[in-house]
Description:
47% of the residues lie in helices and 17% in strands. By secondary structure, the chain is an alpha/beta fold. It folds into two domains: 51-80 and 247-432 and 434-467, 3-Layer(aba) Sandwich (Hexokinase, domain 1); 83-244 and 476-496, ATPase, nucleotide binding domain (Nucleotidyltransferase, domain 5).
Amino acid sequence: MKKVTVGAAVVGAAAVCAVAALIVNHRMRKSSKWGRAMAILREFEEKCKTQDAKLKQVADAMTVEMHAGLASEGGSKLKMLITYVDNLPTGDEAGVFYALDLGGTNFRVLRVQLGGKDGGIIHQEFAEASIPPSLMVGTSDALFDYIAAELAKFVAAEEEKFHQPPGKQRELGFTFSFPVMQTSINSGTIMRWTKGFSIDDAVCQDVVGELTKAMKRKGVDMRVSALVNDTVGTLAGGKYTQKDVAVAVILGTGTNAAYVERVQAIPKWHGPVPKSGEMVINMEWGNFRSSHLPLTEYDHALDNESLNPGEQIFEKMTSGMYLGEILRRVLLKVAEEAGVFGDEVPPKLKDSFVLRTPDMSAMHHDTSSDLKVVGEKLKDILEISNTSLKTRKLVVELCNIVATRGARLAAAGVLGILKKMGRDTPKQGGSERTVIAMDGGLYEHYTEYRMCLENSLKDLLGEELATSIVFVHSNDGSGIGAALLAASHSMYLEDQA
Length: 497
């Protein structure tokens, strides 16, 4: 009996040791995996660093490219497009005007009633629709027909008090948020599609002509009086209420900037000097590129696999279409090399653009003790369940790295514009007040991004200058601005006078 007992004890002890060894090995593997996950995070964080010195280099490079783009066509990655907007709204405009705002994956149609001097905007209303993905890669006829059909519905619902008198045509401001080479205030040809659009037959086509033909096909009697970029519209909308607006920035699906330039500083301008002596310049800054930009392996892969490799690099680092996708790519590497989401890589995590920037924003803003929102987003979007709090914290930290880099680079871009305008250094007698009109869903809804951008610019400028810089959110500014520019370029201006 004693031998049996002793034997059983030995076997039992061996089993306990084996279990203990398995537990230790499991913990070691888990610890090793987590160490790898943190190594990936820290490497990504290091490559995304945007120290003030680096941001000032980016700003200087932006200023240099602005000069080159103003000097000659094709002289820079920045198109620095002449907009023919040399008389921004004054507040005296009166009447009912329409606007069509195609800014990316969504578009809006607006109706705005202006009350003339001291009347301001009496009435405004809008309808919004999404562009079906199939139309983003289809033909220009199909895209413009869809837009014109939505415009026709909106016009059909117009109240009688907004009807134009007999013989007077409705007028439209068209915000077209893609690079256009303008030939007048209401004409221009598209240079290329961005923001995920790939319209196969629309290169160098007449944008206003395409819309006008589509409106006729859909029975809409309307004249396009102003063709503007969304950023130019935002600048015009801001200027209508605040005379010190000099710069406009869009941060939404894509990104761009516009500003007021002295005509004498535009060597490629060969027309008559306008009375104002100024011209709004559409920078198309999404195409900015510099050796100082902190690009990572994830950015290079995203760019190589995009519809426009080598183009829109600044946009791919800062705008709403791409931030969530950068995050997904980092999470995929963490899943593949560290297994933080289990032994198998979640299939959904391999789908490009499955993780959108609004979802990233929601996770970044999660303040619950257990990061419940992060857990829900991972489950609902990526089908990843039962994540630990430590894993959720990792996700939030990655959100912060991606958003911080994007916001600080956008701030450096604005600093570059201020340098070009000579508003980056203190002046005797006090610095000139500069109002920056901002619009776009990324700026409006991603609070951490917005605060980081604004605080970064003020830090870069210094305490003395920071007080002269004011950010204003120009809500729906691009659409309202287009309606205002249609009013200020109306064919019935003499009748109003």
